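Tokens in:
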């Protein structure tokens, strides 16, 4: 055998490890915030009736920021710092607050809200927000800003998303689960993800008629309280072109377009 020179080793291509590469492509739905929620690159908060609808309306009205808390006393303390107070318990406006938790009320008072800092405290959505914002960045999703959030997700190509429904008094909400299904369905038209059982179940709810969903337990409660106009308004699609975005542990939503 003749002598053969040893060929030089090929230069190994360096592999850039990014945050996205650490996540598998998953799209998971959690019907309640007290489920065992995994670590995700991004979280989607859902509370159609009415927290995320209200947050979308506040951003649309030009609010500087919306700080979300489940503690009424914390909210009251922030009033001394110039915040406007918005909130409810059991769907009823809190005494001494500037606003309740009504998207229509915010729209009708947009001149008072523009460029203002708002603190929002609600029965269900604020508790869910507290949990998931500790886990990661969070977007508030409603029917009112549905397509804007979908487009944002597609454009940024998030790899791993957790969709968390707020529920009502620790019970699964039909309307939140329905919206989660619509979101999964729309995202899956553009991207491919592994789905958990929650996401698969929610997809089946997209076959439901809107009138059926609008007769959920919580919807009936709002009707009985004379809040039918709010209920019907929250089921409008794509009235707002906003993406309320909250950085991890900030508990504060701002419009992603201005971030």
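Residues out:
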């Amino acid at each position: 055998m003749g002598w053969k020179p040893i060929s030089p080793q090929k230069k190994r291509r360096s592999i850039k490890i990014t945050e996205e590469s650490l996540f598998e492509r998953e799209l998971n739905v959690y019907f309640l915030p007290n489920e065992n929620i995994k670590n995700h690159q991004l979280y989607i908060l859902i509370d159609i009736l009415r927290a995320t609808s209200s947050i979308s309306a506040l951003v649309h009205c030009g609010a500087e920021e919306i700080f979300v808390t489940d503690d009424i006393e914390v909210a009251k303390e922030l009033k001394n710092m110039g915040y406007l107070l918005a909130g409810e318990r059991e769907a009823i406006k809190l005494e001494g607050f500037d606003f309740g938790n009504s998207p229509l009320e915010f729209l009708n008072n947009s001149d008072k809200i523009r460029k203002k800092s708002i603190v929002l405290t609600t029965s269900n959505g604020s508790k869910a927000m507290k949990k998931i914002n500790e886990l990661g960045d969070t977007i508030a999703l409603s029917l009112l800003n549905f397509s804007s959030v979908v487009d944002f997700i597609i454009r940024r190509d998030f790899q791993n998303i957790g969709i968390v429904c707020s529920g009502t008094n620790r019970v699964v909400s039909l309307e939140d689960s329905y919206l989660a299904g619509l979101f999964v369905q729309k995202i899956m038209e553009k991207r491919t993800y592994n789905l958990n059982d929650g996401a698969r179940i929610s997809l089946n709810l997209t076959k439901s008629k809107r009138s059926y969903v609008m007769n959920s337990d919580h919807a009936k409660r709002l009707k009985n309280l004379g809040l039918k106009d709010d209920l019907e308004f929250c089921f409008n699609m794509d009235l707002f072109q906003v993406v309320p975005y909250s950085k991890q542990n900030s508990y504060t939503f701002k419009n992603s377009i201005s971030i």
